């Protein structure tokens, strides 16, 4: 705790430098850790804090470019059921997530349509298996 957490709190203190409330909170926490763990805590806050802060900013840039931790989508095929046996069941398809801003698509909050509940109910009724 004296090493890793001190580095993280040191990085958080610098990261929230523009927010006085969070910065003060991180400062108090780091001072308490320094009192408890001594020179080792101070050393890792000073030496490891900038490295952790650099990694935080690197991760922010990567996420801003569209990086995601979501795994790729896949689907399984049930070979026991032939496609002709259940014509109402559509085959699943693979979808790759991507980041698209509303400006790129032209879709704004006022252009989003509510789903047709009646149509959804009819689809579900057709898909029920006896």
Structural notes for this entry:
The chain has about 130 residues and is mostly helical. The protein has a domain at about 5-65. The chain is built from 5 helices and no strands. The protein has helices spanning about 5-15, 20-35, 40-65, 100-105, 115-125. The chain is elongated and about 75 Å long. The chain starts with a helix and ends with a helix. The mean pLDDT is about 80.
List keywords for this structure.
mainly alpha; 5 helices
Quick structural summary:
The protein is mostly helical and 130 residues long. Helices cover 55% and strands 0% of the residues.
Shape: elongated
Total number of strands: 0
Termini separation comes to 60 Å
Helix content: 40-55%
The SS-based structural class is mainly alpha
Largest sheet: none
- SS field, number of helical segments: 5
Radius of gyration: 26 Å
Portion in strands: under 5%
């Amino acid at each position: 705790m004296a090493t890793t957490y001190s580095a993280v709190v040191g990085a958080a203190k610098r990261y929230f430098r523009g927010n006085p409330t969070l910065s003060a909170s991180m400062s108090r926490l780091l001072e308490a850790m320094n009192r408890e763990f001594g020179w080792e805590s101070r050393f890792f806050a000073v030496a490891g804090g900038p490295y952790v802060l650099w990694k935080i900013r690197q991760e922010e840039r990567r996420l801003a470019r569209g990086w995601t931790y979501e795994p790729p989508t896949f689907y399984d095929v049930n070979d026991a059921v032939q496609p002709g046996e259940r014509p109402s069941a559509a085959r699943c398809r693979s979808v790759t997530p991507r980041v698209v801003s509303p400006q790129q698509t032209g879709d704004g909050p006022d252009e989003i349509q509510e789903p047709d509940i009646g149509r959804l109910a009819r689809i579900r009724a057709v898909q029920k298996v006896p």
